[in-house]
Amino acid sequence: MFWKVCTLCLVLFLLTGCQQASIIADRGGVWIDAPLNGAQAPLGTTVTVVAYASMPGGVNQMTLFIDNGQVGMMSLEAVSADLFRGQGVWTPPSEGKYLISVQSAAPDGQSKSSSPVLLIVTQNVSVVSSTEAVEPVLELTADSTSLNAGECTFLHWQVHNLQPQSIDLNGKPVPLEGDEQVCPCFTTTYDLIVLAGDKYARSLTIQVSGVCNAPTTPSPPLPSIKFWVDNTQIPAGSCTTLHWAVSDAAEVWFEGQKVAAIGDYPSCLCVSRSYTLGVIGLDGSKNEQSITVNVTGSCVVATTPPPVVITTSAPPQNTYTPTPTSTPVTPQPPVDTTPPPTPTPLKPGSASSDNPPDFYCPLTLRWQPVSDPSGVTYRVVLEKETSSGGWSQVGSWNNLVEPQKDVSGQFQCDIGWKYRWRVSAVDGAGNQSNWSSWLYYESPLT
Q1: What pLDDT score was predicted for residue 74?
Q2: What DSSP designation does 271 have?
Q3: What is the pLDDT of residues 349-389, one digit of tens each?
Q4: End-to-end alpha-carbon separation of the chain, Å?
Q5: Are the beta carbons of 173 and 139 closer than 8 angstroms?
Q6: Residue 12: its H or E element
Q7: Structural domains of the chain, with CATH
Q8: Cis omega before residue 348 (within 30°)?
Q9: Residue 120: which of 37, 34, 50, 13 has the closest Cα?
Q10: Alpha helices (runs of H) in 161-309, residue ranges in sequence order
Q11: Could you tell me if 90 and 66 are in contact, meaning their C-beta atoms sit under 8 angstroms apart?
Q12: At 8, phi and psi to the nearest 5?
């Protein structure tokens, strides 16, 4: 079964329509406020469709469409100077899935259409009494509500049973649920504000003892740098190898070239020389380390990496032959055929396809990062369960650098459907790891 039983909130929207205006930032379009996308209605119910529109020059007409077929005109009223509300009714003729859309027209003849919403009509929807209405749920907590000045704690929030137009935490947009570290210098109240027709709010005060000059947000870790050479002194014409291993860095540079965090460099010298490794930290700081290879004796030319010398055979006696020359042959590095480790998917979802957990958009897929000396990128595949019980790919992403992917797109957040995703890693030589196991989750109707 690819959708869940409709909850009371959705049925109430269908039977009575949403009586509160949805105010959004974009004032140049038309959108449907009720019914909600993916809602269910019992066969025989008259559905109330409520839409809002804003167009340059105003709106003088709104038309209701079902499956791209015109049903009729909607009643129209002005909410404000640039926002208009339309309402219409329609009775589904039979069970099935219907796409509802609304078109608005301006006095100059310009028109715009809303994104369609899915309505599922079935015999098996139970209408629950309005006395059992599900209340919106806003949660705002902190690991600690009493701190010394400069100490830090984590805020946690969740919003359920609402279809919000915006969610702000102290004026900053945030998703439906999340965590954030805060380090207040004085007693501070944090406000979670949700606009969903009405305004909903939760507040939390963190008491702070003492004072500090500025919030002590934890600094990113300093880079760990190891830079060494096999031999710091060599005879002229011989070779040695430099090595480096760097962690917690944004970039690593060797002799002016960007390189991997772990690497080697063979060097054959005729004269002494210094080499420089540059590191840019996660906080943008710069660090340089140098190594000098001292050379004893002298030579004319040294080749890096070490040459393989091919010399001609001895010449015949009493004939003139130029001084034998040597031809350096640069050895080729071995071909990398070893794939990187397989990443472990973290969230959202579980390994069980029978009873996957619920997750709401906006949604970010996260996995455990892996490493390879040549560097790694990631590939992610997202699939949605079809009505026949199969799976259809709705997203595929390659060359991801970070161990996460935001999948809050139009087709990745359809409500009432089951999803699954997996990830693999690709190293700098093009070797791909095995795919991870699938994680399953569901985008619920509420």
Answers
A1: 93
A2: S
A3: 888 888 888 777 777 888 999 998 888 999 999 888 887 88
A4: 17
A5: no
A6: helix 8-16
A7: 8-132 (2.60.40.10), 137-209 (2.60.40.10), 224-309 (2.60.40.10), 344-443 (2.60.40.10)
A8: yes
A9: 37
A10: none
A11: yes
A12: -55, -40
pLDDT tens digits for range 397-406: 899 988 998 8
Token pair 């040695």: residue: 240
The pair phi, psi for residue 45, each rounded to 5°, is -80, 135
The first and second tokens of residue 60, run together, are 């003088």
Q: 247-306: per-residue pLDDT in tens?
A: 888 899 898 888 999 998 998 888 899 999 999 988 888 899 999 999 998 887 655 554
Question: How many whole angstroms separate alpha carbon 377 and alpha carbon 282?
Answer: 19
What per-residue confidence (pLDDT) applies to 132?
Answer: 43
**Integer angstrom CA distances of residue 444 from 6, 12, 127, 152:** 9, 17, 18, 34
What pLDDT sits at residue 122? 87
Separation CA 233–CA 373 (nearest Å): 28
* Placement of tokens 């569901």 in the chain: 442
Q: What is the pLDDT of residues 36-52, one digit of tens each?
A: 888 888 888 888 898 88
The sign one gets for the Cα dihedral 246, 251, 256, 262 is positive
Q: Which of 125, 128, 104 is nearest to 55 (CA)?
A: 104
| pLDDT tens profile 41-83 | 888 888 889 888 888 778 889 999 999 899 899 998 887 777 8
The total of other beta-carbon atoms located within 10 Å of residue 17's CB is: 17
Tokens of 61: 């007409």
- 309 has a pLDDT exceeding 70: no
Do 121 and 183 contact (CB within 8 A), yes or no? Answer: no
Cα–Cα distance, 352 to 407 (Å, whole number): 21
Q: Tokens representing 206?
A: 């963190």
For residues 101 and 22, is the Cβ–Cβ distance under 8 A?
no
Task: Give the phi and the psi of residue 14 in degrees, each rounded to 5.
Answer: -70, -40
The mean pLDDT value for 115-122 works out to: 88
**β-strand partners of 286:** 280
